[in-house]
Amino acid sequence: MVSFRLPSRSGLVAAKAEEAEEESVSGSSSSDSFVDGVLEGPATPDGAAQPAAAALVGKKYWPQDEEVSAVLSQLDQEDREICDAAMANRYLRATGGDARHALRRIRDTLAWRREERPEGIVCTACAANRKSHYMQVVGHDLVGRPCIYSCLALATNRDVEDNRKHMISTFEQAIRLMPQQSATAAQGGRPVESWVWVMDFHGFSIRDCDPRLAKIFLNLSAAHYPERLGTFFIVSAPTVFNTLWRAISRFIDPVTKQKIHFVDFKSKKDNGKLEGLLARYFDAATCHWLLREMEDNRNKGLAVSKAYSYPDLSKLASSGREAPDVSAACEVRRKQSTCQQHDHLGSPAFLEAVAGKPDLLLPHLQQLSVQEDAAA
């Protein structure tokens, strides 16, 4: 059984306190950002924006064990092999305790998983061209939630179906990288069931204002991955994003809105506000990695050739960090960064956690290292 090293109990408690506060939407103070005045409620005494849905904080529904058991009792044995108590609990939370609605949605998802087989979906676009998408798990936050980072400037593929496949594959990989439930429970916390997503909007343009892509994310999250999005950072959303946001925000439920933070990254300038926010969720090394990644992705010369290498990740997982070809590939990636030290494959703790543990990757990602060796 693979598990991750989680923070000390004191660190976990502090992070959990922040997690209780994270049910809020943070507006950006940047004058060139569209988020000023968006999703803001009444001003607080100190003049700061008050989230419009703040009244919901602390009122999230948590089902009792008896409610979970009642839902599970209505599933047949085949369904029970896929739907465990944790899944039933998530759907009950997502429906506010409406057992009938939760059961219907569970059955819809079970039918979808049998038809789609999401754990085996391969992003064929990335297999053909590594620059197709730039969205991958790169680390974990203080309580062990997988962190997804994406950057629009480095993604060349805008095909709706290709993006749907890549998104599903990333979500499934994030679930696979969640720490074992016993590991988090031992430190006094709830099981890790959600992820953090840092979506870097650098490179967003009018061609990205396609509501179909946003609808894919909303539909997948609501229908088949409820209660999976823990925190969502929208970084440097340009003014043009306002049009798309106004079109989709009415479809986002209040609880999900509370998980969104709008922040700006200022290249080669003071990013104290962003750093302070990230420090609430990540250790210092992961914060530094995210900021360095954002800086590198704003370097036009570097971004032209930069692509995420799943074969490199697969080789790291299968062979460990000390393997000659793995260390050589790492050195190449570092030299490609502006500081000659940054490895865009993932944060230091993430690479350490994955090294030598192929079972942490989805089966088709595990096979990439084998295919690379065969091709060589």
Q: Give the number of helices.
A: 18
Strand content: 5-15%
Strand order of the largest sheet: 3-4-5-6-7
Helix content: 40-55%
Count of beta strands: 7
Structural class: alpha/beta
**Gross CATH architecture of the largest domain:** 3-Layer(aba) Sandwich
- Mean of residue pLDDT values: 82
Please indicate the count of domains: 3
Query: What is the CATH third-level topology name of the largest domain?
Result: Phosphatidylinositol Transfer Protein Sec14p
CATH superfamily of the largest domain: CRAL-TRIO lipid binding domain
Morphology = globular
Terminal-residue CA separation: 32 Å
Main sheet summary = 5 strands, mixed
Order of helices and strands: HEEHHHHHEEHHEHEHHEHHHHHHH
CATH class of the largest domain: Alpha Beta
Rg over CA atoms: 21 Å
Q: Which stretches are low in confidence, meaning pLDDT under 50 for 5 or more residues running?
A: 1-58
